[in-house]
Write a structure and sequence with these properties.
Blueprint (H helix, E strand, L loop, with lengths): L12 H11 L4 H8 L3 H8 L7 H10 L4 H16 L2 H4 L6
Helix pairs in contact: 1-5, 2-3
């Protein structure tokens, strides 16, 4: 197994979470209550100040009533529209 290069772009999951939260007309405080997380932590995730673990991502997706895979797809589409095609940033054969 090869290690991916450091220049691989990470999908903007925080932006996707914010977008989906707003679509559901939830405040950060309401999302925090639904997930059992702190409001400040939700804000930090949305602003890309904090990384999100898979466990936390699942909690957020459940609160947003969506699959984790859909939330990641939203993030990937944001990456594609903001920074070019995702496959352009991956090593050859990784797509």
């Amino acid at each position: 197994m090869t290690t991916p290069p450091n220049n691989v772009e990470i999908p903007p999951i925080g932006s996707a979470i914010r977008e989906q939260r707003r679509r559901r007309r939830l405040t950060q405080e309401e999302l925090a209550q639904l997930t059992g997380l702190q409001r400040a932590y939700i804000g930090d995730i949305e602003l890309k100040v904090r990384n999100v673990s898979l466990r936390t991502l699942v909690r957020i997706a459940v609160a947003l009533e969506m699959k984790v895979s859909h939330l990641l797809a939203v993030a990937e589409s944001k990456l594609e529209s903001e920074e070019g095609m995702l496959t352009d940033t991956l090593p050859e054969g990784a797509d």
